[in-house]
Specification:
Aldehyde Dehydrogenase, Chain A, domain 1, Aldehyde Dehydrogenase, Chain A, domain 2, seven-stranded mixed β-sheet
């Protein structure tokens, strides 16, 4: 990336940011009516343009299931908006905080103050939901927003920019399109807060760029999220729920099960049950409109390269569908299990982000927990068991961004739960109230009472002061 390219991108973005910043300065604390009106506008944008949105996303993927777009993008976007509008008044209300005995009858409050202009960098895999979710939180918190769309979804990015310009004033929300140079310049802007969703590798560069302005960041990254089969849980139920989570968007989901841990000796039993589950969902997987394509040729080739590398190092490749071979014309890859995997294989070193599923055996639950803990903290963890003590053990002894017990994916859809990673899988949280908090400054305010004893603690210090200080220290 050349300096001229970077400078050009920065020059193009600066006026947009300045316009939003000026508007934020002119309205530093929008009331509930203004915030709700902006959330309502975003809701209308989604409801009134659903067919065009689904068509644009599908065009970018080559084929994206319209039903998946409805279920995985439109529904959670609208549900998040409904949740925010329902609770916004209570979120905005100043929080009462207790005051120490020594400072009574003073009062303490916490105010949630807008940060000004929020930056949002959107990935390609869920371009609607991962734009609207953070934007909902930013607008609820009273901010203006700049949204950088992915260059890998040009049709939807252009449509979203057009729709935002139609439903919002230019000084409320701005949508930016462009390549990596634009993204890098975007991250260098002095935002009140910057949220990035994407790969861990790119997350490092985003955080470095934001650090130039000490911009606080939320990083929603990814990693290798495990699904663990408990010692005596139904393998058929486990296989069915894992494969539903894995095949959504053809595995191109940041919290998709990345690999499974099953009791030793049950790998082939799992493969058989997984194949049965996939064939039930997708009887003709290469032609059904319900199964999505890999987003572009580069990612399609990357996934096939992971299979070739694993096979070359001794892994067994087991088809999880009646259709075993990928279709280059449509970029559809039927799900594949990988057995006898090792840490030397690329598929066990990087986030897969596709319909490939390594299967790893474990001897006892402690070994499964140790296997997870020996690797970077995952964005999600899935544990299947009906034994409460074992469930609590896994929850207590592993560290992950979030957990769904006896299913996959569903914790992300709970608006009363924070969503975010830990360590290499991310930094910070949003969704619901946590999103409102992320994009707000929690301002501490103390109201001194007219009647107070603070005058006893000022110079010149004498005998009365010493008696009072001793009382404070010894209390």
């Amino acid at each position: 990336m050349g300096n001229n390219e970077m400078a050009g991108a920065e020059n193009a973005l600066a006026p947009l940011h300045a316009r939003l910043r000026e508007a934020a300065a002119g309205e530093p604390y929008p009331g509930w009516t203004a915030r709700d009106a902006r959330l309502a506008a975003l809701e209308r944008l989604l409801r009134e343009n659903e067919p065009a949105i689904a068509a644009a996303i599908s065009a970018d993927f080559g084929h994206r299931s319209a039903h998946e777009t409805q279920l995985l993008e439109l529904f959670p976007s609208l549900e998040g908006l409904r949740h925010a509008r329902r609770h916004l008044k209570s979120w905005m209300r100043p929080e009462r905080r207790a005051v120490s005995l020594w400072f009574l009858p003073g009062r303490a409050r916490v105010l949630h103050q807008p940060l000004g202009v929020v930056g949002i960098i959107v990935p390609w895999n869920y371009p609607l939901y991962l734009a609207v979710g953070p934007l909902t939180a930013a607008l609820a918190a009273g901010n203006r927003a700049m949204v950088k769309m992915s260059e890998y979804t040009p049709a939807f990015s252009a449509l979203f920019a057009e729709l935002v310009a139609k439903y919002f004033h230019a000084d409320e929300v701005a949508v930016v399109q462009g390549d990596a140079a634009v993204a890098q310049a975007f991250a260098r802007l002095p935002f009140g807060h910057l949220l990035f969703t994407g790969s861990t590798r790119v997350g490092y560069s985003v955080m470095r760029a934001a650090a130039e302005n000490l911009t606080p960041v939320t990083l929603e990254l990814g990693g290798k999220s495990p699904a663990i089969l408990g010692p005596d849980y139904s393998l058929e139920k486990f296989a069915e729920r894992v494969m539903v989570g894995k095949t959504m968007n053809a595995g191109q989901t940041c919290i998709a099960p990345d690999y499974v841990l099953v009791p030793a000796g049950r790998a082939r039993e799992f493969v058989a049950a997984a194949r049965q589950a996939v064939d039930a969902c997708y009887p003709d997987i290469l032609r059904t409109p319900d199964y999505s394509s890999i987003v572009n040729e580069r990612h399609y080739r990357r996934l096939l390269g992971l299979v070739d590398d694993a096979r070359g190092q001794g892994a067994e490749v087991a088809p999880l569908s009646a259709a075993a071979e990928p279709d280059a014309a449509t970029r559809r890859i039927p799900p594949l299990a990988l057995l006898n995997v090792t840490d030397a294989m690329q598929v066990m070193q990087e986030e897969i982000f596709g319909p490939l599923l390594p299967v790893v055996g474990y001897r006892d639950l402690d070994e499964a927990i140790a296997y997870v803990n020996a690797r970077p903290n995952p964005l999600a963890l899935y544990y299947f068991d009906d034994d409460r003590s074992r469930i609590d053990r896994v929850l207590a002894k592993t560290l992950s961004g979030g957990v769904t017990v006896n299913d996959t994916i569903l914790h992300i859809a709970q608006d009363n739960l924070p969503f975010g990673g830990v360590g290499e899988s991310g930094k910070g949280h949003y969704h619901g109230f946590e999103g409102f908090e992320t994009f707000s400054k929690k301002k501490a305010v103390f109201f001194q009472s007219r009647v107070n004893g603070i005058g006893l603690f000022k110079p010149p210090y004498g005998a009365l002061f010493e008696r009072m200080v001793r009382l404070l220290i010894r209390s």
